[in-house]
Design goal:
292 residues; alpha/beta; 4-stranded antiparallel β-sheet; 10 strands; binds adenosine-5'-diphosphate; binds magnesium ion
């Protein structure tokens, strides 16, 4: 089965189509029989920013792990520049140019920030010595705004700084494709603004970016296209405006919000001793919310 027609293919000056830098074909990941990602196919062209959104548990982090190599798919193929990488380790994928951040930040807490980033540089394999790794780390720390905190330990950082460290570690590997898993969660609006600016700069320097984010304003502002996952399946993939007004997408989010409101209402009523819980009021439109 061919899906080539639905894939965004960039054309070069001669009109020749280029191979996608990253491509997933019918990728499924099951945990104990339950699918976290199911039949996922999409492709990215070099230089683009693709946003990935979806309610909690939709499979976004799993998809990132399947691309970065922390997880192997149950079925399907992941390709980098046309070459299957499905069986490569995270380390081998890093050396090819794929880097990721973790939603739950995982710094080496005994190491200081600088050493954490040096480890990233060495992991990427594009440096020839520890000295070169240190130089790369210093440049990256400057870039993400952590240079002044280079000697703090991994566990002495604020949420925002831990997110910056995740970015720095990924950038230090010298990626061609950067996978960002909720790097803006827990940041203030101003910090979100800075993070968006940094991601734009990174993209403009030639890095292809896949960004998973809950901060709607940030993801629509920075993404060329947005892909929506729901229960592990792709339900939309289009320009940001088209995706946000897609009834399937609105419904997926409203469904989640409705379930949350209902649970909250029910526990409140249980506490108040009401016997007959009534329906909660209709959820607000997602477009009014900055967080989804
Ligand atoms: P998202 O990042 O969109 O919130 P995840 O990819 O983290 O979603 O999770 C998708 C589904 O897979 C969830 O139902 C989650 O509980 C399940 N899941 C994720 N990782 C594991 C795992 N290591 N073992 C078992 N189930 C998992
Ligand atoms: Mg997640």
């Amino acid at each position: 089965m061919s899906h080539a027609s639905s894939y965004p293919m960039a054309s070069n000056a001669t009109g020749e189509s280029q191979v996608p830098i990253l491509e997933l074909e019918h990728v499924t990941k099951r945990f104990g029989g339950l699918p976290a990602v199911e039949g996922l196919s999409f492709a990215m062209r070099r230089g683009e920013v693709l946003g990935m959104i979806g309610p909690n548990g939709a499979g976004k982090s799993t998809a990132i792990s399947l691309i970065g190599g922390a997880l192997a798919p149950t079925e399907g193929v992941v390709r980098f520049q046309g070459r299957p990488i499905t069986r490569l380790s995270p380390h081998q994928r890093a050396q090819l140019g794929i880097a990721r951040t973790f939603q739950v930040t995982q710094p080496f807490t005994q190491l200081d920030i600088r050493d954490n980033v040096i480890v990233g540089a060495l992991f990427g394999g594009h440096v020839r010595s520890r000295k070169e790794a240190a130089q790369r780390a210093d440049a990256v720390l400057e870039r993400v705004g952590l240079a002044g905190k280079a000697h703090l330990k991994g566990d002495e950082l604020t949420v925002a700084d831990r997110k910056r460290l995740e970015m720095a570690r990924a950038l230090a590997t010298h990626p061609e494709v950067l996978l960002l898993d909720e790097v803006m969660a827990g940041l203030t609006p101003r910090e979100v603004g800075n993070a968006v600016e940094l991601i734009r700069e990174i993209n403009q320097s030639g890095v292809t970016v896949l960004i998973v984010e809950h901060v709607m304003q940030a993801i629509t502002g920075v993404s060329d296209r947005i892909l929506v996952l729901h229960h592990g399946r792709k339900i939309a993939e289009d320009a940001p405006d088209a995706v946000l007004s897609d009834p399937k997408v609105v419904e997926a989010y409203l469904g989640e919000r409705y379930a949350r409101q209902r649970a909250a209402e029910q526990s409140r009523r249980a506490l108040e001793g009401h016997e007959n819980a009534t329906q909660p009021s209709a959820p607000d439109d997602i477009a009014k919310d900055s967080q989804i």
